Amino acid sequence: MSLYSFAKDAAKVAKDAGNIELYSQILEIQERALELQSENEILKKEIEELKDKAQIENSLYIKGHFYYREMHGEIYGPYCTVCWDNNNKLIRAHVRTNLHGRNIAHCHVCNFSSTYLG
Ligand SMILES: [Zn+2]
Q: Is 14 inside any structural domain?
């Protein structure tokens, strides 16, 4: 039984017994239980996000000015170092060949670009 449900049942008992002071105190507990439940959900979500971030960070390695990621024996990337370092957003950079025949990786989110080392 959740704290909220327990407080709800206790509030009913206090109300039926005609103890208004106890009833109002239990209602406050009930309200606080709801706040804690909501806070708990937010904290759980933050923990999941931190776990995800740590998992990504552990799989990243840097080559040139871009991150790459190895997962299940496959190499993914290049990913923008600016976007990850600033916002923890894993943004894949697009590789194109410029007029001088050099491969350039470019992030379409922050416009960072640099030589692509493959
Ligand atoms: Zn970027």
A: yes
Question: What are the distances in angstroms from CA 19 to CA 27, 31, 68, 82?
Answer: 12, 18, 65, 62
Q: Low-confidence residues of the chain, pLDDT below 70?
A: none
Quick check: pTM over 0.85?
Answer: no
Neighbours of ion ligand 1 (CB under 5 A): 80, 82-83, 91, 107, 109-110, 112
Which tokens is 36 given? 């804690």
Dist. CA 89 → ligand 1 center (Å):
8
pLDDT tens-digit map of 78-101: 999 999 999 999 999 999 999 999
* Å from CA of 88 to ligand 1 middle: 10
Give domain status of residue 102, yes or no. Answer: yes
Structural domain that includes position 22:
3-53
